[in-house]
Amino acid sequence: MKLLEVNCVIVLLGSLTWAPATATTFTLPSPWGYRCDADRCVKEENTGVDTLVTLNTCKLTCGPYGVLWPKPTTATVGNEVAEFLPTNVTYVTACVGEVCSLLETAIEIFKDNLQRYHPDYASGSAPWEGPWAPDTVAHTLHIAVDVTGKETRITLDTDESYDLLVATTGDVTSASISAPTFFGARHALETLSQLVEYQENRDSLMIVTTAKVTDSPVFKYRGIILDTSRNYISVESIKRSLDSMAANKLNSFHWHITDSHSFPLYLETLPNMAYYGAYSPRQVYYPADVRHLVEYGRVRGVRVLPEFDAPAHVGNGWQWTEKEESLGKLAVCVNREPWQSFCVEPPCGQLNLANPNMYKLLGQIYDEMVQLFSPIDLFHFGGDEVNLNCWNTTEEIVTWMNDNNFGLSSDAYYQQWGIFQEKARQLLTAANGGTEVPGIMWTSHLTEAGHVDRYLNNSQYIIQIWTTGDDPVIGELLNKNFRVIFSNYDAWYLDCGMGAWVGAGNNWCSPYKGWQTVYDNSPYAMAISQTGSPHPDLVLGGEAALWTEQGDDTTVDSKLWPRGAALAERLWTNPDTNWEAAETRFIHHRQRLVMRGIMAQRVQPEWCHQNEGLCYL
Amino acid sequence: NLFCSRYKRSITVASDKTMITKVASDVGRIFLLVCLVFSVPPCSTTFRLTSPWGWRCINETCVKQENDGVRSLADLSTCKLTCGQDSTIWPSPTGFLKIAPQTVHFLLESLTLRGITAPTDQVKELVEKAFHIFRDNVGKNIPEGGGKATVMGPFHKQVTSHRVFVAVTVTGRVTRLSLETSEAYTLGITTRGDVTNATVLAGDFFGARHALETLSQLIEYDELAGVLQIVSTAAVVDAPVYKYRGILLDTSRNFFSVRAIERTLDAMAASKLNTLHWHITDTHSFPLYLESLPRMAFFGAYSPREIYRAADVRHLVEYGRVRGVRVLPEFPAPAHAGNGWQWAQKQGLGKLGVCLNQEPWQSYCVEPPCGQLNIINNNTYNILAQIYKELLDIFSPLDLFHFGGSKVNLNCWNTTEEIVAHLEKEGHGRDHESFYRLWGSFQKSALDLLTQANQGKQIPGILWTSQLTEKDRIESHLDPQQYIIQILTNRTDKMIKSLLTKGYRVIFSNQDAWNLGCGFGNLSPSGKSWCINYKGWQAVYDNSPNNISATLTGSSHRNLILGGEAVLWSHHVDDTTLDSKLWPRGAALAERLWTNPDTNWEAAETRFVHHRQRLVRRGIMAQRVQPEWCRQNEGHCYL
Asked: According to the UniProt entry, where is the signal peptide (chain A) (predicted)?
């Protein structure tokens, strides 16, 4: 029988003249199939006696969690599938106000994700051709969504939980979703989409016929940081990042917009910032782009959180002010050399503490950012890596320090930095119409061990930890009741491991952080090791960072994914087990991300995907 | 869109800086309104700020300065094109290079082929194809529109009337690359009035296509004028230092689409690399559909969608040829063979592959899944002969063949009853040397089968360094006239010395610099620490076969070192990251092999970073190696 098929293939091939298009549509059959054996899909040769299923079918229904990623709090996934077509999806919603339109959008996204399971999906549609059995054509997926709450913006208090019940009777598979907020409901739709796969033998979709999922995240803050200053990242690429975050139930896109390298944000009130600071007129984010991204994220359950780094990590973009008599120099050490003396990497630049006009401009920048990103529930002040030597070798600042009798000691400068930060916070509050929002700050000299609370107040600031996971400052912050977000570079810096970009050799935080390292990095474990307690009230979550010295559009996907997914399961599920227990689901999830248009990197030979558990050490 | 492009122009014409600021601010507001009205995503891509910055060439460096409205500064591409000895040509020419610091503007439609002088129609046809590729590449410099970009006008008459003619003369008849092909060329550019003439002279087609590649690199898009420009006067005399300049692609660990391999060939052509070493099969999968042995792919492919058909292969061979790239097949044996061979036993041929997917894998191979050929079964040789025959056909004509032949796991054979019984029956021992002798005689048979498949004509075979190429073993198994050895070990390996002193021709792929798969976690579960570190482009660039040979042997062995090759084992790679792993690092390799410069990476940095941008414009997803700030501020990202 098999041989016969092969012979047909040969005949067919002979009759074809070569063209790439026909080559992809013309397919061999496969002698292989899969059987679920003790929660593992085992590849076997189809003998024609037993019924083996396709890899997708097996993965969907084998093991307690199927191929759900991140793993839900509790789930029961059935072991039968029903075939259906993406055109046969109906839904009803019970909701109030703006939540209803958000739900409509989320369901449209869900439907598009179904289309994307087709291997020949291209720009919005796929060539579903069949031939299908009558019951495949007749089968309907009916979704009923019930959202009780009115929340339309995500905050640290948002309840992202949901219940999902999938049942099948006759020609109808019904999926009932109930959630206290829109955000929980969209996560439920994401989970539902992961109970679906492509059925390659019939060119249709298939869905698990019965499932029950009760789910909620362990951590409130689950983020990715993207730096668009070292290199510009297109709006299209940022959208792909948001798509992928949504696929992983990550909820915070921390946008490190500016730095000393470039100022790509076009501010209507301060167009000179981008005019001078953008790499080129083609590498600019306009207000409409920002608003579009904020909304694009919101409907995908992702908060787009702006960082405006200060007083260090500023530079290009600020050159124009000294030409204006009314302003003077607002940034110092801009592009100054030798850079090693004035900053951590070229080009240098810090704000001019001695010029009060700097605060005027900072206030304007905050005003416009708050509008663009509105409403904000958090704001990132940056605040790391101030180089005292820069300030202390700038005549204007030295004079100002002396004139005010501050002195020139390190402490004196830290004191002034602390005062700068307090003014910045007040300017932000003013920009936000007087409503305080928690500020996030990187660990820095201001949070140095021994005096983490000297300059910053734990009710106003959340501290983001970028140093190593065993930095004693973690214990001190927690003991002093600071809320924290983990981004310890030894596990969650995704730019590590490339070559150096100044000098030769490898970059500073090499080696590369493999997905296993990303997965196993547990905020609670780090908290416990230093304080004896997981501090669930203080540890808000974590964030993986992609600094872009060595990346732009061509690699943003592959650096973030699938490793960002490993982070996502750590933060959503916080499993007791390590990466090994997750490996199979992870590999399959990577394939799903690729299906959705994300250029996620492969982490194993495909042989390992097809031969589960055999790529052990 | 109409609104936006109108305002874009109004901004562009404003010259006074404060005006620009005001206009920009107003336009920003109007623009926002327009975009809100027309819903998102908006026309933001057509609305553009201008830039206050420009570049001036000072001491062969492009220096970023603020436009003061008095002097006119060039845009970055224009400056780079004419600043510095090597312009932005990559790899740097080896003979003579002179470029005048002037450029002239022209429209893509004014770039035409004036004439081809060639000894045969076949050569003429190849040149025509190469010219089309060249012209397409020139078009890709124009932003927002790919190869078919239409430039906004209207342009000054000087621009619209300027014509660029290309004339190509090829003296030789060669249409297939071999180790004897010279690849040399000369290129002249002259401009008189409204005509620029580019004249190419080459001894063979391959030199001519390299000349067109160089010519394409003397053309850039002028952002300020919105139009293409070409260097007005130039003279280039160029030829490669090394004959063999390759990239290895492994399509067995993971599958790569034909489209992705085409992109790889495009990028190779852009860097004048000339050999795509295609490691088609391995133990993991057998993605090659052989018409005479369809069961190999039927059993061995990952899925019916992950298969190369004969037509795909022929297409890629031709795609490479017109781009000056030899597509060289590797069929690894006797190890690194596994999935795909399962069918034979059922067909009554006995076991042709042994230890297939056997476990615990650590005992039978270097990484899962295991598999080696059953070299005592005669049917193995029959099938191998069929495979070679078809490979020769679809890759024809071959001037080189890669036999693989890397590390064999003796324990696999030594624990396979059938093989052990054979050894005992033949009166051979089971010590290491007996197995190596067995392997040696397998290799001899493989060579004979290949020669037979090639109608009796011998083709040089390439083999990886292995236990068989060790100092005391190699001469009894491998004839230096018949084999070229590809060095897979480290630059300090003593085996390199023994190979060179024994007169073997070699290709360098030393892992400590030219393994592009390293640095993404362990390559295989048993991955050693040598592969933990990513090989930065600097390490790739500085790896000099000449110097390695001189250090180990005291001689540069120019006659024996054919060249080098960067290898990409695909454990962690498929279509999504192929480009970014190979490029731009493959370009660093290319300059080492084409130019073999005396200087290290630092002298090449500026051109390299610029070349990376060129690759991206051509559709290659090459990785960034520095912040854009470093590209715009040449020489300031030092350590």
From this structure: 1-23
